[in-house]
Amino acid sequence: MQDSDQRDRPDAKRDPSAGPLAELTRHLAAQRAATPQLARMDQGAALDPQLTGYFRDTWSRVRARGQLRQSLQRVPENAGPLNSSHLLHRALTVMEQASPAYLREFLAYADALAWLEGIAPAQGAPVKDGRAAAPRKAGKAKGRKP
After folding, report:
1. What is the pLDDT of residues 19-63, one digit of tens each?
2. What's the rounded Cα separation, in Å, for the pair 11 and 33?
3. Three-state DSSP class for 141?
4. Within 13 Å, how many C-alpha atoms sit on residue 129's CB side?
5. How far apart are the C-alpha atoms of 6 and 14, rounded to whole Å?
6. With b meaning 16 or more CB within 10 Å and e meaning fewer, what string describes 26-57?
7. Is the distance from CB of 88 to CB of 71 less than 8 angstroms?
8. Which residues make Cβ contacts (< 8 Å) with residue 76, sequence separation at least 6?
9. CB 68 within 8 A of CB 92
10. Euclidean distance between CA atoms 87 and 144, whole angstroms
């Protein structure tokens, strides 16, 4: 009963070597010592730069193809020649045919911009009652009738 009372009280001092996190830490340390590859990585062994570059290039190619397929899925079946989804997919397809490396760089840049847009606070009109304030229409000033 005393142990459960100590767990319920936030100011109770606990033995740090007796918790589940300490047990997990001990287990991971034992595994690291038993596995030579992990022990070498802890000693600061660097990864092969050529292998890292290969995987980076492969991932960027796979990612570009996936985004190209995704852009095709967004094109409606009966899209006209000026449909924005159709135009975007066509531009990406032409870019891939002309320069696949440029397409990969372009998509990486667009991803970075989308990420930045997602983390930046909204820069717009102040929100009132859950709706953005509507801009005022410019028009003639109405005067009084005499």
Report:
1. 788 888 888 888 877 777 665 655 555 677 888 889 988 998 999
2. 36
3. coil
4. 2
5. 8
6. eeeeeeeeeeeeeeeeeeeeeeeeeeeeeeee
7. yes
8. 83, 85, 86
9. yes
10. 51
Q: At what angle do helices 100-119 and 49-73 cross, to 10 degrees?
A: 80
Report whether pLDDT(95) > 90. yes
- Residue ranges with strand state E in the chain: 127-128, 131-132
Please name the amino acid found at residue 134: A
Helix, strand, coil in percent for the chain, rounding step 5 = 65, 5, 35
Collapse the DSSP code of 127 into the 3-class scheme (helix H, G, I; strand E, B; otherwise coil) and give the result: strand
The answer to whether 71 and 92 have CB atoms below 8 angstroms apart is yes
- The residue behind tokens 């033995």 is 15
Report the alpha-carbon angle 121-123-128, nearest 5: 95
pLDDT at 28: 81
Mean pLDDT for the chain overall: 76
Q: Calculate the CA dihedral of residues 96, 102, 106, 108 and round it to 10 degrees.
A: 100
| Cα–Cα dist 97/90, whole Å | 11
